[in-house]
């Protein structure tokens, strides 16, 4: 009987650890993708409408984002963007924290670069 209890306790502990590892533990990317990531900074209209910021965002967009979201991207690779429907905080969150299959870009771009991409995506100059 004692041997069975040790086996059961060991098996339960192993199953619990496996379950935690499969879930990614606390603070995993899936949690952040569900909106629990880093909140956006202040995104004032004067920054988002600054031509220099928009231009910088356009260059970053063309260099990286257009590969998946651009008009020449492979169909179905990533959603086509609909900027008229987006708020600045939403765009910032998706870029910075990632979402579903899109990785977070916070380790690639500075906060200022993410804001520049937001400014470009929401600008009248945006063309995927």
Description:
The protein is mainly alpha-helical and 128 residues long. Helices cover 58% and strands 0% of the residues. It has helices at 2-23, 29-36, 45-48, 51-69, 88-97, 111-121. The longest helix has 22 residues, at 2-23. The radius of gyration is 21 Å and the shape is globular.
Give a topology summary:
Layout (H helix, E strand, L loop, with lengths): L1 H22 L5 H8 L8 H4 L2 H19 L18 H10 L13 H11 L7
User: Roughly what is the average pLDDT, rounded to an integer?
Assistant: 77
Q: How far from one another are the termini?
A: 68 Å
Our count of helices gives 6
- The CATH superfamily of the largest domain appears as Cytochrome c-like domain
The CATH architecture of the largest domain can be given as: Orthogonal Bundle
Order of helices and strands: HHHHHH
Q: How much helicity do the residues have?
A: 55-70%
Number of domains: 2
Strand content: under 5%
Structural class designation: mainly alpha
Task: Tell me the name of the CATH class of the largest domain.
Answer: Mainly Alpha
CATH topology of the largest domain: Cytochrome Bc1 Complex, Chain D, domain 2
Provide a compact summary of the structure.
This protein is 58% helix and 0% strand. The protein has 128 residues and is mostly helical.
What keywords describe this structure?
128 residues; mainly alpha; 6 helices
